[in-house]
Amino acid sequence: MHVIGKDIVRFHAVYWPAILLSAGLPTPSRIFVHGFLTRDGRRMSKTLGTGVDPTALVRNWGVDAVRYWLLREVPACEDADFTEAGFARAYTADLANDLGNLLQRTVSLLHRAQDGVVPSGTPDASPLASAVADVPEALQRGLGDDWDPRRALDAIFAVVSAGKPTGGGDEAVGAAARRAGRRRRGRPPCSTRPCGS
Fold first, then answer.
1. For the chain, does the N or the C end have fewer beta carbons within 10 angstroms?
2. What is the Cα–Cα distance from 119 to 183, expressed in whole angstroms?
3. Cβ contacts of 13 within 8 Å, gap of 6 or more
4. CATH number of domain containing 62
5. pTM of the entire structure?
6. pLDDT per residue over 14-24, tens digit each?
7. pLDDT digits (tens, 9 = 90+) for 144-185
8. Terminus-to-terminus CA distance in the chain, angstroms?
9. Helices 101-114 and 171-184 meet at what angle, rounded to 10?
10. What range defines the domain where residue 167 resides?
C-alpha cells in the first residue's frame, strides 16, 4: 500500500507508477490518500506557527492518548481538526470516564464477587454479549478491509456503552455475578446479614 497526502495525488497515482513500470518495478497495489490535519480550523504550518508539538502532546497526555485521538478523530480520507479542548474532551469522556470507569467497576466486581476468577460459561443474550460478538468483524473491517479505524473503535465503545450501569448497560450481569459470588461463599442470594459478617 502506498500512503500519500491528498495534495500530491497526481504525482503518486499517475507519474510514480509510470516511473516504476518503466524501471520494471512493481507498482503499489493500493493507494491510500489521507487528508490534512488542521489546528483550530487552519492548516498546520511551521511558518504560521499553527503546528502541534507531538513531543509535548505525548509528554502531557501520554502516547496512548495521542494514538487514540489519531485513530478516533481522524477520518480515513478526510481532513481532521485538532483543538486542545477537543483532545481533552475525547480523552476525558472516552478514555477516562467511559473506558476507565468500566474497567475499574468490572475488575472490582470480579474481585469482590468472584474472588478475581473470570466465570466460565456461555454469555447470555444481553446487549453486552451482542456488542462483544460484533467486535471481531468490526475489527477486521476497520483495521483491514476498509481501513477506517473509527469503525473498530465504534464497536469497542459499543461494548463500553453496553457495559455501563446506566444508559443501556446490562445490570443483570453484575447482579448475577454478585449472586454467584454469595452462593460460592455459602451465603444465600438475599442474605440479611451485614456485610463483613
1. C
2. 13
3. 4, 31
4. 1.10.730
5. 0.69
6. 999 999 999 99
7. 877 888 989 999 999 999 888 754 444 545 555 555 454 444
8. 63
9. 20
10. 35-184
